[in-house]
Amino acid sequence: MSRKRLFTIDSLKSKSVMILMLLLVCSISHAQEVSFETDKDTIQIGEQIDYLIKVDEVNEEDLVVFPKDQTFVPLEMVEDYKIDTLNPQAKTFTLTKLYKLTQFDSGTYSVPPQLVKINEKAFYTDTLKVRVNDVVLDTTKQKLYPIKPSIGVDKPFALPSWFWWTLITLLILAGIAFLVFKLKKKRDEAKRRIPPYEQAMISLKELDKSSVLENRNFKEYISELTYITRRYLEEKLEIRALEFTTNELISELKFKKEKKKLALKEDLILEYEKILKRADLAKFANSRPDLITLKSDRKQIEKFLKQVQSSIPQITEEEKKKDEAFQKALAKKRKKQKWIVGIVLGLILIIVTVSAVVATKGYEYLRDTVVGNPSKELLEGDWVTSDYGVPPISMTTPDVLVRGELDLPEEILENVANKETYSFGTLYQNLYVTLNKVRFKDSQDIDLDVIVDRIYSNLEERGAYNIITKSEDFETLGGVKGKKVFGSFSIENPITKKDIKKEYKIVNFGRGGFQQVIIFYDRDDEFGEKISNRILNAVEFKNLGQ
């Protein structure tokens, strides 16, 4: 009995714990709520809706991410406002974000649930249904007026952005070229300057004429004296004499003497070492040499320079020839380097210019402008307006339509009084335009819906596949009604055996017979789309008297 009671107590405890955990989970999951509000669910075309998303029970540690970009499709987001906070002083507050939505086509639309993330946890709003009504125009109260002709307006002068990109690039390249030529100029000047020995003798004479000794500046005098020798040794022997310490410089001179690149006596090197050390003591230990010693050092330095100049081995004729060959090879190498630098700078200019054009105008613009686009050339070329057949149909096309032979089934030919066809291009080119006209002996009504159904099978007979067909009513500017069939298909190129993806627009009329305008163009060709619209908008039926 006690065991049973103990089990019951334990069960009650476990159930209590489970209930508390469940309540805790429920309280956490329902602590934050996401909802939305709208000011209306029915609008006119182009009117805007206020779509407000609210997130309740948020604290400062929560990270809330609202929808971004165009996530309200099929509605279009016009503007989104900054996140607003309600009751910011409270422990938990409410965040709101307002969006302006609109739609320019009539109909009923459903805005999908919007995703709001709170601490990486997903919350969704409910679906919103919006009704978009047409703008009703009462022609009894509002008069209609003819379309006014376009007025030419001179465009204000403005430099395109790619021009500035190119200008900046040219300035950068000019700066690089300036630095390169300036460096080259310095090198050329260094070659043309006074030889090292003559320069050292001139410097010694200038030091003698100076008033350094008279002013008792012994430290400056001996420093300048040793500097003249160091500069001479650096230029003549091509060693780092100005950077070497006294010990390093003396070691380098002894090394060149051992290698027989410098024929100097040992006592001359030792005497020069003593002068260098006296200069070091004057510069770093504030030692003050006497005037007699400095004058002696001056004579010893001149003797040292003369001995070094005469001890350098003279260049033989063979070495001169080798040096001339080396100079020619070096000049050729430098010329090649100049060509390489010029080509690289040219390529950089081309790349930057192309990048600037692509960044401002887009890749398609660059491709169509540089490589060329046949459809663009047709669209921007001189169009031709001509009348075709009897009674005439006026069409405006990129080129004149050429008359051909129209093949019809045998069962139709018996009742055909006249048949005509005019075309431009072929089915496999970027643009194909055809006008077909059939006049019957006996007047009869043409069921355009039946003809629409036949178009799919006609395309299949031509070898088309993956055919998508749509239809709608069509009316010319003159008020002649017809049926428009449009869509896309694929067809195999008989030469390359590759798929060609096409768009098509076919308009059928039944005015005193049968008339048909066919336009095929490449899919994703924006110029082909513009050409087809321009052709169809200009179709006009004329009477014989016109």
TrEMBL record:
<feature type="transmembrane region" description="Helical">
    <location>
        <begin position="162"/>
        <end position="183"/>
    </location>
</feature>
<protein>
    <recommendedName>
        <fullName>DUF4381 domain-containing protein</fullName>
    </recommendedName>
</protein>
<feature type="transmembrane region" description="Helical">
    <location>
        <begin position="339"/>
        <end position="359"/>
    </location>
</feature>
<keyword id="KW-0812">Transmembrane</keyword>
<feature type="signal peptide">
    <location>
        <begin position="1"/>
        <end position="31"/>
    </location>
</feature>
<keyword id="KW-0472">Membrane</keyword>
<keyword id="KW-0732">Signal</keyword>
<keyword id="KW-1133">Transmembrane helix</keyword>
